[in-house]
């Protein structure tokens, strides 16, 4: 995937997670692909994740499906909203290759 021309975005909502591939052309963005998945259970409530592994599974499924069509996706723009959230801008990068994610590690990281 051409990093300069295409963007991978995720909208993590209370009812659904949406994965979008956007392509820049002449300063405008065009939707090239979109994948929408509903949460099987109430994994989120009012924008708060209550079942991190369930939400992570949906995100991985969306990413995998889009990677089949568009190649490796190494960067993502994420949107999450809800009544319980306060909006802030930040940027971080964590290497997770070879590090298993356990429930306790996820909860510890989030607290």
TrEMBL record:
InterPro entries, per the entry: ATPase_NBD (IPR043129), SHS2_FtsA (IPR003494)
> What biological-process terms (Gene Ontology) are attached?
cell division
Q: Which residues form the signal peptide?
A: none
Q: Where are the transmembrane segments?
A: none
Q: Which domain of life is it from?
A: Bacteria
Chain ranges of the SHS2 domain:
7-109
| Key words of the record | Cell cycle, Cell division
Coiled-coil residues: none
Q: What is this protein called?
A: Cell division protein FtsA, extended form
